[in-house]
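Human: You know discrete backbone vocabularies at least as well as I do. Show me how you would write down a chain together with its backbone fold. No explanation is needed for now; the record alone will do.

Assistant:
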Amino acid sequence: MYQYIKGIITQIEPAYLVIEVGGIGYLLYMANPYRFTDVIHQEIVLYIYQHIGQDSQLLYGFKDEKEKDLFLRLIKVSGIGPKSALAILANENHAGLIRAIEGKDEKYLMQFPGVGKKTAGQLILDLKGKLGDLVSDEMEDLPDLPISSNNPALDEALQALEALGYSKRECTKIRKILEEEEEKATDGYLRQALSLLTSS
């Protein structure tokens, strides 16, 4: 019904933001609303989707048409509702998600909140081969994360970092550091990586 909304962002909260249009504040649930902190009190265009449930009518907001389109495809998958879809989209770079679906990487997908083995399999079944049009130039420019065939624990830790929202470049940089360390279990690599990222 609605395509986009143009107004001034007046409030940002962990799960939503408020955009004022013609004196009315519209509450939009969004993936990572803090992305818009630098444009608060400025006019902006956001794409929207209206979800009508049995006892609620909610508006969901997106930074562009591609993010909205990806959301719409996600909620068509059995086991994925609007809240789960937003959690999956919280990582602003969606290249990792798309690559995981195309590569049938269930472990990567299961790191998203609310996604178990069954739902991960359903995401692959329903969406594999159908997301190529959503890959932006920015995604294509990002280098693939090198795969260390002899260190799966490190690979898993870095995939977890991507699921938590860290960029491809950050993960590649961390890999170079961790490859010089003694081999650890996945959780050990993850703890050290988070320590390095938060102290830098």
